[in-house]
Structures are given as structure tokens and as C-alpha cells.
Amino acid sequence: MSSSSLVFLLYGLTLASIVATIHGRNLKQSMHERKKQQLEQQSYPPPPPPPSRESLYLASLSKGTVPNSSPTKHHHSFVVNEELIVRHLAALDRILRSVPSPGVGH
């Protein structure tokens, strides 16, 4: 007798959990549909189209001025002179060039 009541109890618990899960899913789905209907009833302007890849690339480039890196409150900016950068990189290339030590081979 106790085994049949145990089986009935397990069956009842399983059925209750399945029904609760299904009911919860239905509630969530109906809430989602209700919210979707409310949004459709409201008239919002259409969203702007996504920016093209080229405009994102151009927007990410610097505009010619770089803020001063000193910790002052003035934040002066200056125009980057590309010729100075090229000269600096050329000087670094000469400095970093591999040169044998004067003591090698003696």
C-alpha cells in the first residue's frame, strides 16, 4: 500500500512541476506579446540606419590635434607635424641598427 502511495506522490509532484514550468513559460510569452503590442501601438520615429564602415573608420581617426599630456588644467592642444615624426623614427632606426662591437675579432 505504501509503495502505491509513494508512486502516486512522485507522479503528482512530477506533474505539478511540469505544469508549473509550462504555465510559467506561457506567462512569460504572453507578457512578451503584450509588451510587443504596446510598442506597436506607440508611434516612434524609425531608428536611423547604421553608419557605414567608412564613416566609422574616419570617425575613429584623430582630427589633427592631440591633447597635451602634462597634468595641467589648461589642456592645450597642438597640431601633429608628420615630418618631425618621420625624422624621429629615422633617427631611431639609425640608433637601433645592429653594429658589431669594437672588441670583436681582436
TrEMBL record:
Residues 28-74 are annotated as: Disordered. Residues 62-71 have a biased composition (Polar residues). Residues 1-24 form the signal peptide. GO terms for biological process: cellular response to nitrogen starvation; response to osmotic stress. The keyword Lyase does not apply. Keywords: Signal. It comes from the Eukaryota. The keyword Signal applies. This is Uncharacterized protein.
